[in-house]
C-alpha cells in the first residue's frame, strides 16, 4: 500500500500527509501545486476516520483468514 501505483495507496494519504521523516521533512515530499491539493491539505485531517475504517475493511479478510 506504500507503492503510489497501488490503487489502495490513496487510503493512506490522509494519514501519510501528517507524517515526517527522521529529518522532519514531509514523508510524501513537497505537495503538488494547485487548487485541488490545497483543498485536500485543508481537509485531510477530517478524512482520517474514514481512511482508518477503509483500511480495516481492506485488511480484515486477510487477518481473519490467518486467524483460522
Amino acid at each position: 500500500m506504500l507503492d503510489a501505483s497501488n490503487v489502495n495507496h490513496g487510503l493512506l494519504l490522509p494519514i501519510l500527509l501528517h507524517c515526517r521523516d527522521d529529518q522532519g521533512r514531509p514523508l510524501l515530499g513537497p505537495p503538488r501545486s494547485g487548487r485541488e491539493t490545497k483543498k485536500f491539505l485543508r481537509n485531510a485531517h477530517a478524512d482520517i476516520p474514514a481512511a482508518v475504517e477503509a483500511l480495516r475493511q481492506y485488511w480484515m479478510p486477510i487477518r481473519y483468514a490467518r486467524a483460522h
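The longest helix spans residues 35-67. The CA atoms of residues 56 and 63 lie 10 Å apart.
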